[in-house]
Write a structure and sequence with these properties.
Shape: globular
Mean pLDDT: 92
Number of helices: 9
Number of domains: 2
Distance between the termini: 55 Å
Bound molecules: thiamine diphosphate, magnesium ion
CATH class of the largest domain: Alpha Beta
Strand order of the largest sheet: 1-2-3-5-4
Structural class: alpha/beta
């Protein structure tokens, strides 16, 4: 084998193939990032969030397909919280409240699925009672998306335990006393996030 020398790995076939694949991937997702379709494409959500959130926002992720889209489509510029695939559902929103208390000068944003939020609903009372202005962005798809897809691909659409009767979460948040907005159209994303960032109130929306 010929030594590649310092930094020489960049010229290796592997590195070149990786760079090519990365460029092709970026091109393939561009249309989704600019999509104006309803329901909102997760990559459009990630693009708009990148634009509207402060660079140093603390973003807490989850373990489902929402997290996967975040990892594909959100360009991180600072350290984000969350451990990805093995994250215990229901912990994300609680972690976000803790992050906001620890670093009150930074925006704390929880990006999670509806199944995960259902496991943490009582903590909306905590946020309201102690006035913790963390933001939760809930992707409402009425399924445990990650497992639902596995059942679709590997078990021929034989779904067991992945279809969820999720209620109107924004209304529920309002009942707790939190401000909330239901986002249906992509163009609603950025104005709603700006309002949430400026409100100083615990926010919660789908
Ligand atoms: C307490 C707990 N139970 C089960 C899992 C396994 N699990 C990981 S993601 C997921 C589904 C997540 O659904 P949702 O929050 O709606 O996100 P989506 O995949 O739809 O984006 C499940 C059941 C887990 N991580 N934690
Ligand atoms: Mg879901």
């Amino acid at each position: 084998m010929t030594p590649l020398g310092p930094g020489g790995w960049r010229k290796s076939d592997y590195a070149r193939g990786f760079a090519r694949g990365s460029t092709e991937w970026e091109i393939s997702i561009t249309a989704h990032k600019n999509s104006s379709k309803i329901p909102i494409h997760p990559l459009r959500l990630m693009k708009d969030l990148r634009e509207v959130l402060p660079q140093d926002a603390l973003i807490v992720g989850q373990s489902g397909s929402t997290q996967a889209w975040f990892e594909y489509g959100f360009t991180a510029v600072t350290h984000n919280l969350g451990i990805g695939t093995w994250h215990p559902m229901g912990a994300e929103y609680c972690e976000t409240l803790g992050a906001k208390l620890a670093m009150p000068d930074r925006a704390a944003v929880c990006l999670l699925g509806d199944g995960s939020m259902m496991m943490a609903l009582p903590e909306l009372a905590t946020a309201v009672k102690y006035n913790i202005p963390a933001i939760a962005i809930v992707c409402h798809n009425d399924v445990f998306g990650k497992m639902h897809r596995t059942q679709m691909v590997n078990y021929g659409n034989r779904f067991i335990g992945t279809e969820l009767p999720i209620p109107h979460l924004a209304n529920i948040a309002r009942e707790f006393g939190a401000h909330s907005e239901r986002i249906i159209e992509p163009d609603q994303i950025m104005p709603a996030v700006r309002r949430a960032l400026n409100s100083g109130n615990p926010r919660y929306w789908r």
